[in-house]
Design brief:
Layout lengths: L3 E2 L3 E4 L6 H10 L1 H5 L16 H17 L3 E7 L2 E12 L5 E8 L8 H16 L4 E6 L4 H10 L2 E12 L2 E11 H15 L2
Parallel strand pairs: 5-6
Antiparallel strand pairs: 1-2, 2-3, 3-4, 4-5, 6-8, 7-8
């Protein structure tokens, strides 16, 4: 199992035994999180309340890792589950790119855990997976998520209209990016500020 370390955060894939802690955080954060997430497909089990559905989600993430298509991690602070950061939609060939998404327990928001986790994952994506480009797409009015990209000084690339279905609506997203060349120039700065 791949485990990544930051200054204060530990990132590792979620496993079935994380269900109770994950469910507790998700239950406490329904209003904080669901307005920024895709709707649950009709007829699909509620992964927050159904341990088997959570197990299937963990297994799907494991298959993505095996295929090199995605790398999902729980964010752990002081040994406690605090949120997730994911590198998804990994494309090889001429793209060599992926997309980062994240969420955190509202009780842990604003403390720098997510920017730290994102830098740890960016380092993994560029230094270990040899990707060329990483993107983060955010609903423009999601100030908390945008603050992460601002803290990291990521390059804003523009608005994608109707980019993703979020909570029942097709939402525009502002996209931020960083390439491997930018990472090389900013690696020491970002690691020094957030990780080492």
């Amino acid at each position: 199992m791949t485990t990544l370390f930051g200054r204060r955060v530990l990132l590792r894939p979620l496993v079935v035994t994380d269900f109770n802690a994950w469910r507790d955080v998700r239950r406490r954060n329904v209003e904080w999180l669901t307005k920024w997430e895709p709707s649950r497909a009709l007829g699909s089990p509620d992964v927050v309340e159904d341990r088997d559905a959570f197990a299937a989600r963990c297994n799907a993430r494991q298959r993505e890792r095996q295929l090199g298509a995605g790398y999902g991690f729980g964010i752990f602070v002081d040994g406690e589950f605090a949120g997730e950061v994911n590198l998804s939609s990994v494309q090889r060939g001429p793209f060599q790119s992926g997309s980062i998404g994240y969420w955190v327990d509202e009780a842990r928001a604003g403390q720098g855990y997510v920017p730290e986790a994102v830098v740890v994952l960016i380092r993994y994506a560029f230094d270990e997976l040899a990707l060329h480009r990483i993107e983060i797409a955010i609903v423009p009015r999601n100030a908390a998520s945008r603050r992460v990209t601002e803290k990291l000084g990521l390059r804003e690339e523009g608005i994608s209209r109707g980019y993703l279905e979020i909570n029942g609506r097709w939402e525009d997203h502002v996209r931020f990016g960083i390439t491997f060349d930018e990472w090389i120039l900013r690696r020491d700065e970002l690691l020094g500020a957030w990780v080492s």
